[in-house]
Amino acid sequence: MSDVVIVGAGPNGLMLACELALAGVRPVVLERLAEPGEQQRANGLVGQVVRALDRRGLYERVTGDPAPPHPQPSYVFGAMPLDLRAVPDNPLYTLPVPQRRLEQVLAERATELGVEVRRGHEVTGLAQNADAVRVTLAGGAEMTTRYLVGADGGHSAVRKLTGIGFPGVTTDRSVSRTAHVSVPAEMIDGRTGALVVPGYGTIPPFQHTRTDHGLIAWALFPGRPAMLSTTEWTGPETPGEPLTLAEMSASVTRVLGAGVPLSPPEGDGPHLLRRLTGGNTRLADRYRDGRVLLLGDAAHVHSAIGGPGLNLGLQDAINLGWKLAAQVRGWAPAGLLDSYETERRPAAERVILSTRAQAALIAPGDDVTALRALVAEFLAAPDNAGHVAALLAGADIRYDMGRPGGPPVGCWAEDRTLHTDSGPVRLAELTRAARPLLLDGTGALATVAKPWRDRVDVVGASMPGALLLRPDCFVAWAATSEHPDEGGLREALARWFGAPS
Ligand SMILES: Cc1cc2nc3c(=O)[nH]c(=O)nc-3n(C[C@H](O)[C@H](O)[C@H](O)COP(=O)(O)OP(=O)(O)OC[C@H]3O[C@@H](n4cnc5c(N)ncnc54)[C@H](O)[C@@H]3O)c2cc1C
User: Fold this and answer.
1) For residue 389, is pLDDT > 90?
2) How many angstroms separate the alpha carbon of residue 303 from the centre of ligand 1?
């Protein structure tokens, strides 16, 4: 019997596999596709997930550069520019990476950690009892596992087979078209990368521009073809046939009221030509049913506006990994596994709030235009821009970890350079093993944590007080004085990391 079976080798399933393996549990990943898919989806990551990947050494693997991530001076909200230069502690980090490349990096890491990914294995049935889950595969083979995680995307078979509801809305009111293209070189502003369209004006890169007739976005990526996309609310019925450059070009003309000559991009494909009609906003009514859990798009789907999907899903995986591993290894305190849903479902609700609010702000009509003018006035104030940036980044997430009145807990621990016995080191480098971590600036807490030393690392650092971090880098306990509350530390250790050994 396996300890954990993960259904789906998408980014979230692979991330969970890595987190479980780091925590000492080797899952089996079942993926129905025989080879990684050709479908092109995310172009990049936005938000806390960028720093979370840094804390596992994965940011460097993607960028090929040991430098830590830096916040973005600007972003967009509802196709309106968001100036973040004056925002203190700007939380908005980005990582431009095609989803297929990210999946490749995660798959390589999972293999290094000893995870078995079985391709060409489609899950078609499951049944569970108090001790195990029996999984049926296409072709009739069966296997059993102690826990099953459905990371099998928005149409999740696991969710449907478990009977977990997926309430929400499906709309058919918009048509989005996206294509890799070449445009005449004289239409690209060499300094800013903007697209300059005679008869319309300038379309800045990497943001949506709203017109009276829809949205347009233009992006130039180094070493990759330029990408153009439009969204329209009305227009000709789209045929069931694949999108062509001619259809793309007609859509651009309708949105801008001016034409852009489009030709196929140079270089090897596959090149993107994608039409999507409508969209879904849905949230699973439970993330867990007995021994079955849902992860990523299997648990939540929403508009891709602002690119929040992987920020949400990959952090679900980082939240679930250590908790499920603790359950499997037998030291999980009561309620730990259920805290996955109580912590992460509200995070999905925040993303849905953000994407629906942005959908309202990009809709057509004069009333929306007036609303946008007013919202732009609000966004000009750095405090408001910072509030929206925190929403987009998922940096406003606080988990309920109790302890009112004491130093803050339940929040993400900011990266910083720590001076330890082994020299200066970034916190993000100390967390790569994904183990609970006690940072002790008092020199007095190693004895208190000793009964948990099989699970919790203790690092002496020159800092005021002390911090206890969960493997997902959220603060479980904090002390600001040289004489910390040792009873409180014991309580937090037991609450999150189980009974002392
Ligand atoms: C057009 C578009 C653009 C996007 N852009 C961005 C962006 O810029 N930034 C961002 O963060 N997010 C973006 N997203 C969202 C992002 O792509 C998803 O959130 C992400 O793919 C979800 O990952 P996942 O692992 O949960 O599911 P998936 O990526 O859907 O992976 C699920 C896997 O499960 C497998 N599977 C399914 N059923 C079974 C079964 N029965 N048995 C075995 N295997 C099965 C599938 O083959 C697949 O490999 C975009 C999405 C779209 C559609």
Assistant:
1) yes
2) 13
